Amino acid sequence: MSVELVHPEGVHRVEVHHQVADTRGTRTVYLAGQVSWDVRGDLVGHDDVAAQAERCYLNIAAALDAVGATVADLAKVVVYVVDLDETRAEQFVVGRERAAAALGVELQQPSTWIGVTALAAPGYLVEVDAVAVLP
Fold first, then answer.
1. The whole model's pTM is what?
2. Around 25, how many Cα atoms within 13 Å sit in the side-chain half-sphere?
3. Number of domains making up the chain
4. How many Cβ atoms are within 10 Å of 40's Cβ, its own excluded?
5. Helix 86-103 × helix 49-65 angle, to 10°
6. Cα separation of 11 and 69, whole Å?
7. CATH code of the domain in which 8 resides
8. What is the domain range of residue 32?
């Protein structure tokens, strides 16, 4: 495996992600930020942070599959949520966990969450930027 997720001693442990991804790969894959659109470009989950988060991760999985990778290869994600607060953060985790269940994986990569006032198109509430490392 090219990515080992770690909860280091001496760093506060959070349950929604690991603090460290130790990578040992030779190939890095950078994804464009994924929003909750379907293959036609239509918004999925209007006004629903959980539905949008779920779709973002399903899009990430499809993008990684296109280059022979899986979500297990993810080393880091950056999450952007419009008007991020505790409720929206909880909704995001619900959607991420639904995607994890649908994909049969854990999504615990190190992440940074950033609250923003808007994304590129009206109605989008979530965008997830991801980097994967492959052997």
1. 0.87
2. 20
3. 1
4. 5
5. 40
6. 30
7. 3.30.1330.40
8. 3-134
